[in-house]
Amino acid sequence: MWPIVGLSFGTVLGLAGAFGGFAAFALVLVLGVVGFVAGRAMEGEIDLAEIFTRRSA
Hints:
It is built from 2 helices and no strands. It has helices at 2-43, 48-52.
């Protein structure tokens, strides 16, 4: 499944870069990474509370 997801994401990034320029490419890239992290968090593979909470030394 992951090769298909990577191929799809690469195709979308390529089209955004070709037709929308660098700003569209960067926007699609950032939103894709945010979606990837959100999906991992919903599956329980990443604990966002652990990443964003401060620990006192």
